[in-house]
Amino acid sequence: MKSLCVYCGSSIGGDAFYAQAARELAREMVNDNIALVYGGGKVGLMGVIADEILRLGGEATGVIPKALMDKEVGHVGLTRLHIVKDMHERKAMMADLSDGFIAMPGGIGTLEELFEIFTWSQLGLHDKPIGLLNANGFYDGLIAFLKHVVDQGFLKESQASLLMHASHPDALVQLFKSFHPQRHDKLLDPESARTIV
């Protein structure tokens, strides 16, 4: 595993624990020589994890739409910064550059990115690991809701299990390092996947 895409908030959040979790995840990634791929911002948890990766000597690649770069939220001190035309191109490039995906605490944008990449896995468009960094129990409600979705027959247990989760960065990174793609019923074949992701 050479790189991980981290989805996280453009806000710092209401608890200092979240920024600390971002710094801890950065340390785990640098210790394992895993590069960061993220949304390219300098604000919120995005800025915290990127700054910590760089401070520790790791690599950080950002992908940001031109409209957001123009509003001066782009991080100009990264190892690499790709400026793209829109959010669709941003997400596709982030997926292409990454060997796995972690969602840290964040808002609607973080959830949208998470669920898109989760859906792509369910469809068979990729077989890369996806996980929640459930810092301070942030994702407890989402984890419970997904169990409810399974219980109500809208999601198979084998598909729900594609989304791993752990409370601490070291445990989550270990899950990613030991990840092996599971066989489950996917709606598309691998040849289709190569043309989309």
Q: Uncertain regions: pLDDT < 50 for 5+ in a row?
A: none
- Classified by CATH, the class is Alpha Beta
Q: Label the structural class.
A: alpha/beta
How many domains? 1
GO biological process, one term: cytokinin biosynthetic process
Keywords: Cytokinin biosynthesis, Hydrolase
EC number: 3.2.2.n1
Pfam family, one: Lysine_decarbox
Describe the protein's topology.
Elements: E1 3-7, H1 16-31, E2 35-38, H2 44-55, E3 60-65, H3 66-70, E4 80-84, H4 87-97, E5 101-103, H5 108-123, E6 130-133, H6 140-151, H7 157-160, E7 163-166, H8 169-177, H9 190-196
Parallel strand pairs: 1-2, 1-5, 2-3, 3-4, 5-6, 6-7
Helix pairs in contact: 1-2
Tell me what you see in this structure.
It contains nine helices and seven strands, in the order βαβαβαβαβαβααβαα. With 197 residues, the chain is α/β, with parallel strands linked by helices. It has one domain (3-196): 3-Layer(aba) Sandwich (Rossmann fold), CATH 3.40.50. It has a seven-stranded parallel sheet with strand order 4-3-2-1-5-6-7, sandwiched between helices. Helix 1 (16-31) packs parallel to helix 2 (44-55). The longest helix is centred in the first third of the chain and has 16 residues, at 16-31. The chain starts with a strand and ends with a helix. The mean pLDDT is 92. It catalyses: AMP + H2O = D-ribose 5-phosphate + adenine. Its EC number is 3.2.2.n1.
